[in-house]
Design a protein that fits this description.
Number of strands: 10
CATH class of the largest domain: Alpha Beta
Number of helices: 3
Shape: globular
CATH architecture of the largest domain: 2-Layer Sandwich
Radius of gyration: 15 Å
Distance between the termini: 28 Å
CATH topology of the largest domain: Ribosomal Protein S8, Chain: A, domain 1
Helix content: 25-40%
Order of helices and strands: HEHEEEEEEEEHE
Largest sheet: 5 strands, antiparallel
Number of domains: 2
Strand content: 35-45%
Length: about 130
């Protein structure tokens, strides 16, 4: 049994720690939405759809660096396949006292923690980024 979200997060974490400019991951709608949230919050530069040599879709991510250090200090999986963590809107955890973001899977789609609190929506916390 594998967790595709953990694999996706690990690809991004390893590439940013290794100083890579780009990384590629398997395509899924959930991965795409997570990557778009990271882009809109300034953690990565660009997200594009691509195809590998066998014709399968993938996600190409251009990582962002500020003064030779990665914009992503750390990205961690919060809710795991063996232990799902759901929160009400009032109980959503703050990441580094609001300096980072949490990405949630809700009934209204994948959104960041600030939007979930503002709209009064709870859900499963997928990952945290800072």
């Amino acid at each position: 049994m594998s967790d595709s979200i953990s694999d996706f997060i690990t690809i991004i974490r390893n590439a940013s720690r290794a100083g890579k400019e780009q990384c590629k991951a398997k395509y899924s709608k959930l991965h795409w939405k997570i990557a778009k949230i990271l882009q809109s919050n300034g953690f990565i530069n660009e997200v594009k759809e691509g195809k590998d040599k066998n014709g399968f879709k993938n996600i190409q991510i251009a990582l962002k660096y500020v003064d030779d250090s990665s914009a992503i200090t750390d990205i961690q999986r919060y809710s795991k396949s063996g232990r799902r963590l759901y929160f009400k809107s009032k109980d959503i955890p703050y990441v580094l006292d609001g300096l980072g973001i949490a990405i949630l899977n809700t009934s209204r789609g994948v959104i960041k923690d600030k939007d979930a609190r503002r709209n009064g929506i709870g859900g499963e916390v997928i990952c945290t980024v800072w």
